[in-house]
Amino acid sequence: FSRKRGIPLPGSTVEELLEHVSYKTPLTLTKFLEKFNIYMPVIAGDREAVRRIAYELVETKAKEGMAYMEVRYSPHLLANCKVEPIPWGQEEGDLTPDEVVSLVNQGLQDGERDFHIKARSILCCMRHMPSWSPEVVELCKKYRNNSVVAIDLAGDECVKVDSSEHRKAYEEAERCGIHRTVHAGEAGPPAMIKEAVYLLKAERIGHGYHVLEDPELYKELLKRKMHFEVCPWSSYLTGACLPDFRKHPLTQFKKDQANYSINTDDPLIFNSTIDKDYGILKEYMGFTEEEFRRVNINAARSSFLPEQEKQELLNTLYEAYGMVPSAS
User: Fold this and answer.
1) pLDDT digits over 151-178, tens only?
2) Where do the coiled-coil regions begin and end (predicted)?
3) Of residues 70, 186, 195, 229, which has the active-site annotation?
């Protein structure tokens, strides 16, 4: 795509590009976000690139042994038309955020057909661009029966903007029965998690590690069985958590039998697979097969699938694990 569009990339092979894009030692979250500037100009605005990446992601995750995935992205960051400002320094083109969602859905559905796993998507509002949020929730409504299952709020938690448009988008999502998750407490303080839960009515929290700094909030969320989307390798590389995995907040989540799942985050930049994250848990946190099973059952229960499909997914897991379903 780089050659086709005449947009230069560092390196002439995949391996050379990865040396510039991926990394293995901690950076700040802000530095990590800068990595997108290297390759996104090649992808954004290109219909075939958008569809193909969605398709190949399903292929990759099927090879990793997944039964179900929820992938998240910002439609606006892949568009070059009807988006203000046009991202990544692109010239104006003819790919709108709406068509981006349609292309991703097509790629995911083709991947489902060919690789026999279930794939759904979550559309992201971006913290630094509240003006995009009204359209994000409208796209969630439009495509809710066509691969899209939820809305998310992602990006730098430290950015100072008027967040009223984010709030309105989440109010509309709740009104329409659209599922809601929010990146909160990754690099930001517990106050961001409070905002996500009580103001934005999030059903799940992306990361949420800093919840432990507010014991009362943590206790309340444990009681509510709030689901935390945990990404161990990512939290190490972004500096969101201490570099010693034995002191990772996940060790406390595990001890308290919290409701959480294990996820990969930005597999290109972090050069990560679910096996890498599982390996960290096994080596540094003493996770057993039983614990992994519990985590995956929690993930399925907290998924944003419709109830019948969720039950089918749970039954698939119970059968694979040789488990008798529990009522809890």
Assistant:
1) 999 998 988 899 999 999 999 999 999 9
2) none
3) 186
